[in-house]
Amino acid sequence: MAFRKCRSWKTYMTMMHWSLRRQSSWVQLAGHQGSLQLSDGGEVLKLYSEVEANCLDCLMRDPLRPFVPQYHGLVTKGELCYIRLEDLLSGLRKPVIMDCKMGVRTYQEEELVKARTNATLRSDMYQKMVKIDPSAPSAEEHEQGGVTKSRYLQWKDTTSSTATLGFRIEGIMTEDGSVQRDFRKIMTLAQVTEALLFFTRRQREILEAYHSRLLALSDALKNSLFFRTHEVIGSSLLFVHDHSSRANVWMIDFAKTTPVSDASRLRHNVPWAEGSREDGYLIGLTSLITSLSQAISVASWQQEHSCREDNSVV
Q1: Can you give the pLDDT at residue 33?
Q2: Cβ partners under 8 Å of residue 254, min gap 6
Q3: Which of 81, 193, 282, 307 could in theory staple to 294 by disulfide, Cβ–Cβ 3.0 to 4.6 A?
Q4: EC number(s) of the enzyme (predicted)?
C-alpha cells in the first residue's frame, strides 16, 4: 500500500508548532484547530472542556495515570480557560507521531438520539458521503440530495477500520514534519501491520517498545475503575518515537468520555448494541497488539535475512 504524502498545513493532522531551540513540538488534529497552545512554561494548553477536565482529574488518581499526560489544573488567558497538560513531545528531536482513534464507534449514543430527534436532511453530509463513496447513498438519498446526521454518523465508521478492528489510524507525521493521512482504506490486520512497519521504518526496537507499552496499558485497564465506569468515545492513542529509538504511547482526548450509571460496568471488548454504551476500546487495543506482534516478526525476519546476506558477501 502506498501512503500519500501531504505537506500542507491544512491537513487532517496538522503540525501546529515546531521549536528547534526548545527541541519541542506538538501536534493538533483537525477538529481542534485553535484549541491548543504551547505555554511559556513548556506545558500544552488545551481549550477547557468540563468533561475532559473531570476525566483528567479522575485519571490522576487511577492506575491509568502513567498512560495519560500529567494534568496540572486550569489556567485563564484573557477570556478563555485552558487545561494545563504535560507536553508529551518534550525532549524529543524530530519526533515521529501516529494518532489512532480508538473504539468501534466515534459518536456518543446521545449524539445519535439527538440526531434522530432532529432528522433534518443534511446536504453537507451527503456531499461528504458521495466524495468518499458515490454508491453509499440510497436512491432516495440521491434524489433528495441529503442524508440525516444519524445515518451519516453510523455510515462513516463503517468506511474505516473503526467498525472492523476497533480503531483507525487518523494520521502519521514523519520526522521531517510531513503528514500522511490516507489511511481510510485500511480495513485488515495485514494492512495495519504494513502501516506500522511504514511508521517505524521497520525498526524492531521501536516496534518492541510499542508492543511492551500496549501490554502494560492492557494490564492497567483491567485494574482501572475509571475505565470500567466510563464510555470512552473519540479518545486516541498517541504513538511517539524519535531517532534515538525512544518510544511511548499515551491515551489522549477525553472530551467525549462520560461516566455510566452507578449500576453499570462496561466490558469494552464486545460489539456495540444501541443502549449498551459499549465502546469496543479493548477490541481496538487487541487489534493493535496483534498487528504489532506481526510487524515485529516481519522486521525480525528481514533483519536476520539482511545479516545473513551481509555475512555471505564478506
Answers
A1: 52
A2: 51, 52, 55, 56, 59, 232, 235
A3: 193
A4: 2.7.-.-
Look up residue 204 and give its amino acid: R
Write down how long the chain is.
Answer: 314
What single letter denotes the amino acid at residue 10? K
Longest dimension (CA), the chain: 73
Cell of 268: 469494552
Q: Does the pTM exceed 0.85? A: yes
Q: Are 89 and 251 in contact (CB under 8 A)?
A: no
The per-residue DSSP string of 138-205 comes to -HHHHHHT-B-HHHHHHHHHTTSHHHHHSEEEEEEE-TTS-EE---TT--SHHHHHHHHHHHHTT-HH
CA angle 207–211–216, rounded 5-degree value = 150
Rounded CA gap, 111 and 149, in Å?
9
Give the chain's count of helices (H) and strands (E): 10, 14
Contacts of 126 (CB under 8 A, 6+ apart): 137, 141, 144, 145, 146, 147, 152
Tens digit of each residue's pLDDT (9 = 90 or more) over 153-173: 999 999 999 999 999 999 998
- CA 33 from chain centre, in angstroms, equals 16
